[in-house]
Amino acid sequence: MRTSKFSEEQIVQALRQAEAGTPVVDICRKMEITETTFYRSKKKYFGLGVSELREMKLLREENRKLKGLVADLTLDKQILRESLTKNSRAGSQTRVGAVDRTRLCGVRAARVQLARVLSMTGRHAEAMKALPPDSIRLGSYEAGIAGFVYARAGQRTAALAAARGLERRDVVPAEGVAAIYAALGDKDRAIACLEKAVALRGVGLIFLGVEPMYDGLRGDRRFTDVLNQIGVVY
Fold it and tell me: Between these two residues, 63 and 90, which has the higher pLDDT value?
């Protein structure tokens, strides 16, 4: 069954009909496909239910995002290596130009994003390896993600250090701190931080309704109240 003609849900439904006793020839006639196509699809999707199919789609999408992040990170590392080589030949080993510093920050930020994706897919050991050593001292957004990754990996002390470091900044990224506390399972502090972020008009709140880092709060009525205060339609 060509995916261009039928969705995966339709394919699984057809296979379920066959399992329930509907003759394969009748299913093929209705869907205008050959029996060869039917059995090829059966081999691919046999045993999959709707929930398993949905999970497979989510994993496929996460894998696609992960590959994109890895590709970006690889490109950043290559460009950085070339820039540093040029500086070395020019006798600038003791300093890195502004462009190179910007690129270096880009590499670190890409590694933090890679760690985030790995963490969300349950690959915590790999996520920890991906984090730059100074990740909690990076920009507010990256430091918040780093704390979230630490919390998800069971590194409570490191996660709390990241949260407290953000709370000591001149401009507190309360939504980032909330993500850390949410991952630690401290819903009260997480909600309190989100309410503070609303008062401060935190820019990260724009994605609050769809950001997976806050999934642990979605069953809480107070989280719904925060979403209603933001007023963003997703």
Answer: 63
What tokens appear for 4 in the block?
């261009």
Domain count across the chain: 1
The answer as to whether 116 is a domain residue is: no
DSSP, residue by residue, 180-199:
HHHHHT-HHHHHHHHHHHHH
Tokens, residue 20: 């329930």
Q: Can you give the residue range of the structural domain that contains 15?
A: 8-45
Q: Is the pTM of this model over 0.70?
A: no
**End-to-end Cα, the chain, rounded Å:** 33
CA distance 48 to 61: 18
Domain membership flag for residue 23: yes
Contact between 214 and 179 (Cβ < 8 Å): yes
Tokens standing for residue 164: 């407290």
Residue 92 lies in a domain: no
